[in-house]
Design goal:
The chain is 32% helix and 14% strand. With 423 residues, it is an alpha/beta fold. It has one domain: Alkaline Phosphatase, subunit A, CATH 3.40.720.10. Strands 1, 2, 5, 6, 7, 8, 9, 12, 13 and 14 form a ten-stranded mixed beta sheet that branches. A two-stranded antiparallel sheet has the order 3-4. The protein starts with 19 loop residues before the first strand and ends with a helix.
Length: 423
């Protein structure tokens, strides 16, 4: 465990609470998961819900993942935390620049916990590059590109963990689809023209699988080095990627013109990706001998890209899934109500609720509330402690954002363009 300078200034609350595992699964939606649970194909996530408490997690518009995941981690609206889109447009730059952690203007929950002596591990969470000093370990959200400065804390923590090669995703492909993938056809499509299906598979599956597998391996390394962290944060984005790319093959009826052969070849990608993620959730939780508090959240939901949600830009017609405002929230573990289906929560409620569970005060400047209805008697009835703010008003200003290394920045921007988030 690495101790960041200046951390652990405040003592932990008396009586150590259970360990906590926070799983961020992008674009999780009850529309799909309830069907999968009923069929018994996602046993780990289904158990967490059936033996815990759950709700719809209401998101915000526009549904920009860096913005929402930062609100989840801070309990604050975008105007307060400072992350307002995927990119920024600095004067004189001539092109957009990806957002980065130095733009965040307020403390994230891992900062709050670090300063009170909790050992934290943060893996792949949106807008965590450059990695910051925490009481534990941080693997930033662009570490999967490899050879990135400040990719992790402690520095060089993951230098021996190589990026996942595309060849691994291609070898795994038969478990997700029955498609004769040809890498030679997976090139950029001409302007104004839809791409070959091979490009879709590269863009929406290969990139998703290689990224998620990298961060799962990073998580495995952290959990293999005792002691287990007090609080673990793991974020996986691939569930969103495959839903954007393969929705019409899974659900062809709203689209009306999906060839039957394509439905056969690609119609199970989303389902199989969730099965793969569910197994990895089971792997993570199997490391814990005593049940931790497990919190599963998504930044928003998903649905078919039709009607008001249809994709209009020709370059992005290969995307057939789009966002919806209703995501998922599950809590499971010691002190959590069992089998409770509760009223919708807000993305801003996650951090205050976790702080209360861990017997820490909630910031008065946070925009979320403590969802005590998720908890059993004594925990639900415990008085909510307050603190004015977790932000350090006397701290020196963070250095101004410097550019990423050009090769990495170009990869990030190219991926955002493929998603349709920037032109």
């Amino acid at each position: 465990m690495a101790i960041a300078p200046g951390c652990a200034r405040e003592p932990k609350p008396a009586g150590k609470p259970p360990r906590v595992v926070v799983l961020g699964l992008d674009a999780g939606t009850w529309q799909l998961l309830d069907k999968y649970f009923a069929r018994g194909i996602l046993p780990n996530l289904a158990r967490l819900r059936s033996q815990g408490a759950s709700a719809v997690l209401n998101s915000i518009e526009p549904s920009s993942s860096p913005v929402i995941w930062t609100s989840i981690a801070t309990g604050k609206v975008p105007d307060k935390h400072g992350i307002t889109w995927f990119v920024r447009f600095p004067q004189g730059a001539g092109k957009p620049v990806p957002v980065d952690r130095r733009m965040r203007k307020t403390s994230a929950i891992w900062n709050m916990l670090s300063e009170r002596g909790f050992d934290v591990a943060v893996v792949g969470w949106f807008v965590t590059w450059p990695a910051e000093a925490v009481n534990g370990r941080m693997i930033s959200d662009i570490a999967h590109y490899g050879d990135v400065e400040e990719e992790s804390f402690p520095p060089f923590y993951l230098r021996q963990l190589a990026p996942v090669e595309q060849s691994e995703a291609i070898r795994a492909m038969p478990s997700f689809m029955d498609f004769p993938y040809d890498a030679r056809r997976a090139n950029k499509h001409p302007a104004g023209q839809p791409p070959e299906l091979d490009y879709l598979v590269y863009d929406r599956f290969i990139r998703a699988y290689t990224r998620d597998l990298f961060y799962l391996r990073a998580t495995e390394r952290i959990l293999s080095e005792p002691p287990l962290p007090d609080v673990l944060f793991v974020y996986l984005r691939g569930t969103d990627d495959v839903q954007h790319g393969f929705w019409k093959f899974m659900d062809p009826e709203p689209f009306g013109d999906v060839p039957a052969e394509q439905v056969r070849q690609l119609g199970k990608v989303i389902e199989n990706y969730w099965i793969w993620v569910d197994k990895r959730v089971g792997d993570i939780l199997s490391r814990y001998k005593q049940d931790p508090l497990v919190l599963v959240a998504s930044d928003h939901g998903a649905g078919p890209a039709v009607g008001q949600f249809a994709v209009e830009v020709p370059e992005y017609l290969h995307l057939s899934g789009s966002h919806r405002s209703d995501g998922i929230l599950i809590l499971n573990g010691p002190g959590v109500r069992k089998g409770a289906r509760l009223e919708p929560a807000s993305i801003m409620d996650v951090t205050p609720t976790l702080l209360h569970y861990l017997r820490l005060p909630v910031g008065e400047d946070m925009d979320g509330t403590v969802r005590t209805d998720f908890f059993e008697d004594s925990l639900a009835e415990r008085e909510i402690e307050r603190i004015k703010t977790y932000d350090k008003t006397d701290a020196a200003a963070a250095p101004g954002p410097a550019p990423m290394e050009p090769a990495v920045e170009n990869k990030v921007l190219e991926h955002l363009r493929s998603l349709g988030y920037i032109e």
